[in-house]
Amino acid sequence: MTAGQFIEAPDLSSHAAIRHAFFTRAGGVSEGIYASLNGGLGSGDLPECVAANRLRMCAALGLPADRLVSLYQVHSADVVTVEEPFPAGERPKADAMVTRVPGLALGIATADCGPILFADPANRVIGAAHAGWKGALTGVIGATVAAMERLGAHRPSIVAVLGPTISQANYEVGPDFVARFTAEAAGMERYLGPGQRPDHRQFDLPGFILARLGEAGIGKARSLGLCTYADPERFYSFRRTTHRSEPDYGRLISAISLAP
User: Fold this and answer.
1) For residue 4, is pLDDT > 90?
2) Could you say which of 3.40.190.10, 3.40.50.970, 3.60.140.10, 2.40.160.50 is the CATH number of the domain covering 11-167+204-252?
3) What confidence tens digit (pLDDT) does each residue in 108-156 have?
4) Are 129 and 145 in contact (CB under 8 A)?
5) Contact by Cβ (8 Å): 128, 254
6) Collapsing DSSP states into helix, strand and coil, what is residue 212?
7) Residue 258: in which H helix or E strand, if any?
8) Cβ 24 vs Cβ 235: under 8 Å
9) What is the spatial distance between Cα 139 and Cα 20, in angstroms, rounded to a whole number?
């Protein structure tokens, strides 16, 4: 894969101990609605295509084929500590991972939700989290940081980068969402902008995730500022697929590993 087919964050790539990539949809073998670098194990794509795509991701990270680890994501606040790869059919139901084992790539699958890559380069601890609105609301970000601490990370040394995520302009939410959010995230109403329809609002998921990262007390939090919905050439989007009445969608993979 070429560098143009994945995105790196300067706040992570500046550390020699860290390898990472926010993969786009370019550079793979999948076809049709999955074109082309679909990494979603839970998608309806041909399994052999997904496997070939994930092999290319491992190669881009400089890792063997079996070292990319993924979860069965369920929009929870649950975090798994990873010490070795687990079979695809035995993926834990959780939405974040942490490790201090070199040569393991923690891979998060998204298609509008927020992929967050975490690193404490000094203490050699990394993490990755899938932060949709439910996970961000119920605590997946704080839980990931706490799990990193248990492995020896130091909060002020942790850097976190938010990858491609649906933007506020393209994320309309209804009254049920608004009611739950205002009840469970008191003081965060600023992330609910005016809606285009009665009783609807525009939700700023990236802004809310950055606020949660700030609450976690880590050293640095950044966003790539990229919208999945608005860029169909580079990114998959669940909401865009829904609006187009397509039967399924590809999954982007964002991955981080410790160099040996």
Assistant:
1) no
2) 3.60.140.10
3) 999 999 999 999 999 999 999 999 999 999 999 999 999 999 999 999 9
4) no
5) yes
6) helix
7) strand 252-258
8) yes
9) 24
